[in-house]
Amino acid sequence: MMLKRVLALLCVAALPWFAAAVQAEIHADEVLTDVGLSAEARQQVLSGEFFTGELPTISDRDLSVASVFLVKTSPEKLSQQLVAGNLIRNDPQVQSFGEFTGSGHLSDLARLHLTDNAAKAFASAQGGSALNLSTTEISVFHALSPAAPQAVQQQLHKVLLSRFQAYQASGLAALTPYDRGGGSSTDVAGDLHQATETVRTFKKYVPHFQQALANYPQDGHPGIKHKFYWLAYNIDGTMTYVLTHSMVATDGAARIAVQRQYYVSTGYNVEQAVVGLLPVVEGTVVVYSNHTFTDQVAGFGGSAKRNIGRRVMTGKLKQIFETARQNAAE
User: Fold this and answer.
1) Which of 87, 120, 167, 220 gets the most CB atoms within 10 Å of its CB?
2) Residue 39 in contact with residue 29, Cβ under 8 Å?
3) What is the CA radius of gyration of the chain?
């Protein structure tokens, strides 16, 4: 599922950094206080339970959730257990994926293949919420025939490569809004900017990370590793194509990773997930937060839709993390 893919990408990217972890000298209660948990919530985590709660919403498009728990093992062992499951390859929704190399090339997308239905959807795209495309991208796809899926596939490769290269060169400033029809658009860059502000929670443990994430690519830092992926998912029968930026940082014993999905073809707009693995005397405090932005929870009834969405995400999150915690404790 979505959260499983988040963990897979973050932990695969993070693994090399954990080898240098040092012995923690702080207790879990101090870390839980720093991340803003109440006394009741801290006791819940210290007792071995999961704390899962809502985050302050950033906009009426924001579907957010957070989870905190304690694993009685080191960050290194926890990471190794998560990676050992090879979650990306074992996720039945993942049809294909790949990593961009250097400044990117069309050959990096060679394994991304469109189904006939997906090709028809792109060739007939129009402003609205069915597909996430800019006005210019829509016009280019309209010039292609739905009966020529290979040409549509080649054009999608070009769109994804262009979006990746623009983001790599200029970060969030390069994100083109999605055309929602009628002259309206969705400001995905603004949403991700606001989500990035929430990463300040980890400033005490990884001081430079939030600023580097906010200012990418201008504010580089030697302790941060970057990877860029494309992924093709079959989500409830609908193919979804995603561009992801994964950042992993280390500062002393603390580790933090972010998965920023800065382009999503359909279903939701963008997403930013953060996981902090913070070594403590008792093991590792895991702090996870996720901001997923979608027009489907905006407007009339948005609050009810967000509550339903959070319950679904929370249930999946607890299941995934519980499995990871059990595996790490073995």
Assistant:
1) 167
2) no
3) 20
Query: What is the rounded distance in angstroms from the CA atom of residue 43 to the CA atom of residue 167?
Result: 42
Axis crossing angle, helix 149-170 with helix 135-142, rounded to the nearest 10: 160
Q: Are 159 and 137 in contact (CB under 8 A)?
A: yes
> 282, 308, 288: which is closest to 297 by C-alpha?
308
> With contact defined as beta carbons under 8 Å apart, do 56 and 289 qualify?
no
Kindly state the helix (H) or strand (E) to which residue 98 belongs, with its residue range: strand 94-99
| Residues 279, 280, 281, 283, CA torsion sign | negative
For residue 106, the SS3 value is helix
The model carries a pTM of: 0.84
**CA distance linking residue 39 with residue 280, whole number of Å:** 18
Q: What pLDDT is attached to residue 296?
A: 66
Contact yes or no for 202/248 (Cβ under 8 A): no
Distance of CA 8 to the CA centre of its chain: 10
Mean pLDDT of 201-217: 87
Beta bridge partners of 288: 67, 275
